[in-house]
Amino acid sequence: TCSNDNGNAVVVGYYEGWAKNRACNVFWPEQIPIGVYTHVNFAFAVIDPKTFKIAPSSPDDVNLYKRIMLLKQRGPKLKVYIAIGGWAFNDPGATATTFSDLAASVPRQRVFLESLLSFMSTYGFDGIDVDWEYPAADDRSGREVDFDNFPKFMKRLKETLSGTKKGLTITLPASYWYLQHLDLVNLTLVESLGTWDKGNQWTGNFLNSHTNLTEIDAALDLLWRNDVNPTKVVMGLAFYGRTFSMTSGACNTPGCTYESGGQRGKCSKEVGILLNSEIDDLVKQNSLTPTLYKKETAKVATWGNQWVAYDDEETLQMKSEYAQTRCLGGLMVWAISHDTEDAKYHKALAKAANRKITSLPMTDGSDDAYKDLEVDAPQCKWTNCGDSEYVSFAPEAVR
């Protein structure tokens, strides 16, 4: 065990390229507080399924790359990584098997790796986060051969980056253990439970938190049993809540049952998902008093037949201390843009991680302030560095 009063050395936050397209609670790169995060991962770039070259998922993303790199002027120590893939990348469609196809072919990997080095040099990224969801999972277009191919691919990727000072991380569920070729592992422990469990004989349609600490503890045990160095692991946290429509409002504690996902959020536009900014609005509008469940380390709010579990200042502190006592490398948040306008949850995270916010947003993030910005890439060492391609088929997730 380790001390729980030293803070978290690494705090990773994901910024999604589609955060600017929400119906409400729009969030721009300039709104990211400086000092909370050691790493910001831009989600997501994609891999062209025909050429196997990396590309922005949208033509608008190139402008966002430039804007997010400007954060380094206020926080020179900040590292910005490009995250590749994401959940929607493995949905049925043109890119469903792209990761698997890439991992199975050394010639394709050569093309990918060359394009990756050029891409990072062009836009100034400090590293790459591989978000393949998930290798060998047949329900996610995975194949059995992925189990052997994936670690070989990661080894080749690490070797390619070893002389460049570029970092390599991967986002994995806790059931994978081929991690020796990584600098950090972003462990996705924020989706341990959800509506997909309805009908499952083991989990069923029971109300529970998607960041339940008892589930997190069991998941981490899988890693320790496979001799994974805990300092390479960062624990996933959520700035959003999972919501459910309860079977009965009279039974609203963890372990009671639900009928379906909660009502669609006006900003998230997704059934069963509320951004923390939306949860805050609902708590105020309905004069709610959320309940702390210490065992699960989650806050729960209910109104009508609706139920939501989420993290706040109190539970973020508890989870930060948990990560410290387990000697984990740090924390990871999905997603930066789910916070309130006054940075309530970033302030709570900074306090929990013993980090100091050195700069709050300079503007309200309105497009007018930054839309015409052009940022040169003087570090570019490759031909055609100014060229930009994007893949029009790439899906955009809501979250």
UniProtKB/TrEMBL annotation:
Every GH18 domain range: 9-356
Enzyme Commission code: 3.2.1.14
Biological process (GO), any one: polysaccharide catabolic process
Record's keyword terms, sorted: Carbohydrate metabolism, Chitin degradation, Glycosidase, Hydrolase, Polysaccharide degradation
Pfam families in UniProt: Glyco_hydro_18 (PF00704)
One Gene Ontology term of the molecular function aspect: endochitinase activity
Gene3D superfamilies per UniProt: 3.10.50.10, Glycosidases (3.20.20.80)
PROSITE patterns assigned: GH18_1, GH18_2
Keyword Hydrolase among record annotations: yes
Keyword Hydrolase found: yes
Catalytic activity, reaction form: Random endo-hydrolysis of N-acetyl-beta-D-glucosaminide (1->4)-beta-linkages in chitin and chitodextrins
Similarity annotation: Belongs to the glycosyl hydrolase 18 family. Chitinase class V subfamily.
Protein name: chitinase
